[in-house]
């Protein structure tokens, strides 16, 4: 089957949509809307891949019809997204609507397969026409696509009217709206060509692939942003993730000395939550290590941060070794001013910055003494 999308464009787009679908299945599946979007792009990736196979020389069988079925199934998820974003439905009603729409999409896909098999058996082209199989293509493709994209467009227009959108969101919404307009114009031209023979635009079903590719590429931009953000968070490259990496050596060493203060990990906690918990636990550990600090421990503005870090490292080692506390003090303070969470957080980041260097020093270079100890 011929294709209006050149391979050097179609293959990268196919791979991109497949990567988007796999990435979102792995990283973006927290909500019902996420899962519906993931299923949409999974069907889209399969459809684009089938189109690539159908365009290969010697391709036979129902590959092209399967691709058309994926097109119809993809649009059913546009309907589901429109229902979810509209709101006002209880979960049972929403699931029922999605099942009905998905079932209708499967029926349409089955009709496309049967029509294609019938056309090939009769020696007819797999194409929209006024023949029996051709009319099945017209209704099985045209009706679901028109209905589902209409629901999707209504949702987009409602979002434009009722939501304060950023310039990026406005640009993405405008692109989606233009993509739907493009799909409807092509559909109207196909119907005119079918009924009147004008305009002479050549085979009609290859235009369905072109519309599908354009719409999927445009609509893939918005869901791609959450995936990129999720990848950044998974790689700990965002602000909270970088803070986690900086605090982790300090947190690991101090909580190894005071393991009882570590809270049970929260599965799937976001980086901001992990940073908050690490900050609190480091502070708690410093509080527990205060009685083990050398007798000459500096107070708020004496000795400097590196000297304080050496004393904390010494105290952590003493507590891990099971030594008795040197004194009864229970006040843990950094040698800098604080008083609120943000200030404490910045101080701990400074402490973590020198911690790597201090903890790697040989014990004899720390020159720390405790009362009655060398």
Task: Describe this entry's structure for a reader.
- By secondary structure, this protein is an all-alpha fold.
- The protein folds into 2 domains: 7-233, Rhodopsin 7-helix transmembrane proteins (Rhopdopsin 7-helix transmembrane proteins, Up-down Bundle); 238-365, no CATH class.
- The protein has 12 helices and no strands.
- The protein has helices at 7-27, 32-54, 63-86, 91-121, 132-162, 167-196, 205-219, 221-234, 239-257, 271-289, 304-320, 341-359.
- 32% of the residues are buried.
Largest sheet: none
The low-confidence runs, each spanning 5 or more residues with pLDDT under 50, are 297-302, 364-374
| Rg measurement, Å | 32 Å
Helix/strand order = HHHHHHHHHHHH
How many helical elements? Answer: 12
Please tell me what the overall shape is: elongated
Please tell me the total number of domains: 2
Provide the CATH architecture of the largest domain.
Up-down Bundle
Q: What is the averaged pLDDT score? A: 85
Strand content: under 5%
């Amino acid at each position: 089957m011929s294709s209006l999308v050149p391979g050097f464009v179609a293959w990268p787009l196919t791979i991109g949509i497949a990567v988007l679908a796999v990435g979102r299945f792995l990283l973006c599946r927290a909500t019902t809307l996420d899962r519906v979007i993931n299923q949409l792009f999974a069907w889209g990736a399969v459809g684009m891949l089938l189109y690539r196979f159908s365009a290969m020389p010697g391709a036979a069988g129902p590959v092209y019809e399967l691709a058309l079925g994926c097109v119809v199934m993809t649009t059913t998820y546009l309907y589901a997204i429109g229902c979810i974003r509209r709101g006002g439905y209880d979960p049972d009603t929403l699931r029922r609507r999605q099942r009905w729409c998905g079932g209708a999409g499967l029926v349409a896909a089955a009709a496309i397969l049967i029509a294609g098999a019938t056309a090939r058996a009769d020696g007819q082209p797999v194409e929209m026409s006024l023949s029996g199989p051709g009319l099945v293509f017209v209704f099985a493709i045209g009706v679901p696509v028109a209905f589902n994209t209409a629901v999707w467009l209504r949702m987009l227009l409602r979002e434009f009217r009722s939501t304060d959108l950023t310039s990026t969101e406005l640009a993405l919404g405008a692109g989606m709206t233009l993509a739907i307009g493009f799909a409807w114009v092509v559909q109207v031209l196909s119907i005119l060509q079918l009924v009147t023979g004008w305009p002479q635009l050549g085979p009609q079903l290859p235009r369905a692939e072109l519309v599908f590719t354009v719409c999927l590429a445009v609509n893939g931009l918005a869901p791609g942003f959450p995936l990129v953000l999720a990848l950044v968070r998974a790689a700990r490259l965002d602000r909270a993730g970088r803070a986690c990496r900086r605090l982790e050596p300090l947190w690991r060493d101090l909580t190894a000395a005071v393991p009882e203060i570590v809270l049970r990990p929260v599965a799937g906690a976001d980086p901001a939550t992990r940073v908050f918990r690490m900050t609190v636990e480091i502070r708690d550990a410093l509080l527990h290590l205060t009685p083990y600090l050398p007798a000459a421990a500096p107070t708020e503005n004496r000795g400097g941060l590196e000297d304080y870090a050496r004393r904390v490292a010494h105290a952590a080692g003493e507590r891990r070794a099971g030594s008795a506390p040197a004194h009864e003090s229970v006040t843990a303070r950094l040698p800098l001013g604080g008083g609120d969470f943000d200030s404490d957080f910045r101080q701990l980041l400074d402490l973590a910055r020198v911690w790597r260097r201090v903890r790697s020093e040989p014990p004899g270079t720390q020159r720390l003494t405790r009362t009655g100890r060398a």
